[in-house]
Amino acid sequence: NAGVMQNPRHLVRRRGQEARLRCSPVKGHSHVYWYRQLPEEGLKFMVYLQKENIIDESGMPKERFSAEFPKEGPSILRIQQVVRGDSAAYFCASSVRRGSDTEAFFGQGTRLTVV
Amino acid sequence: QQQVKQSPQSLIVQKGGISIINCAYENTAFDYFPWYQQFPGKGPALLIAIRPDVSEKKEGRFTISFNKSAKQFSLHIMDSQPGDSATYFCAGTGANNLFFGTGTRLTVIP
Question: Which of A4, A74, B32, B70 measures 20 to 30 Å from A104, CA to CA?
Answer without folding.
Answer: B70
